Amino acid sequence: MAACIFCRIIKGEIPSFKLFESDKVFAFLDIQPLSRGHALVIPKYHGAKLTDIPDEDLTEILPVAKKIAAATGATDFNILQNNGRIAHQVVDHVHFHMIPKPNEPEGLGIGWPAQAADMDKLKEYYESLKSKI
């Protein structure tokens, strides 16, 4: 945690353009934005992946992201949260991006490689997954 860039930002050791702070959440502008208003909303609790963060430390995340989106005036935007390197996570501290999408070239660009599902296999997986929730 001592080396975590986001923990250091929360502590004030690294300057940021802070937009919001509470006991559980810190939000600031991204310094490598995909578009104007691109912000990060992070829990103060340090954890690398979403599953590492206690539920009570996540309760303010989406309301804060919503407030920032409204404040930017964005009508189109993405809320993005990545877990693990192959899922494009770079900083090992849970963070949510609020990325305005003002036009086609700016903001988040993604592919969506959808696949046709075998309904029998999907039903089998559904039953397995549902029993664990």
Explain this structure.
The structure is a single chain. With 133 residues, this protein is an alpha+beta fold. The chain has a single domain (5-131), classed as HIT family, subunit A, CATH 3.30.428. It is built from 3 helices and 5 strands, in the order αβββαββα. The chain has helices spanning 5-11, 61-72, 119-130; strands spanning 18-21, 25-29, 39-43, 77-80, 96-100. The protein has a 5-stranded antiparallel beta sheet with strand order 1-2-3-5-4, with helices on one face. A hairpin with a 3-residue loop joins strand 1 (18-21) and strand 2 (25-29). The longest helix has 12 residues, at 61-72. The mean pLDDT is 96.
What is this entry, summarized?
With 133 residues, this protein is α+β, with helices and mostly antiparallel strands.
CATH architecture: 2-Layer Sandwich
Q: Tell me the β content.
A: 15-25%
Can you tell me the number of structural domains? 1
Unreliable residue stretches: none
Main CATH class: Alpha Beta
Q: Helix and strand succession?
A: HEEEHEEH
Task: Report the strand count.
Answer: 5
What helical percentage do the residues reach?
10-25%
Helices and strands: which structural class? alpha+beta
- State mean pLDDT (0 to 100 scale): 96
Distance between the termini: 30 Å
SS field, number of helical segments:
3
Strand order of the largest sheet: 1-2-3-5-4
Q: Please, what is the CATH homologous superfamily?
A: HIT-like
User: Which fold name corresponds to the CATH topology?
Assistant: HIT family, subunit A
How large, in whole angstroms, is the Cα Rg? 17 Å
Q: What gross morphology would you assign?
A: globular
The main sheet comes to:
5 strands, antiparallel
